[in-house]
Amino acid sequence: MKSRTFANAVDVADIRRRLTLVQPGSRARWGRMSAHQMICHLRDAFLIATDPAQTRPVPGLHNRTIVKWIALYVPLRWPSGIRTTPEIDQVAGAGSRPGEFAADVAAVDAAIAAITAAPEEFFRGRRHPIFGPLTQPAWLRWAYLHMDHHLRQFGV
Question: Most buried of 17, 39, 58, 108 (most Cβ within 10 A)?
Answer without folding.
Answer: 39
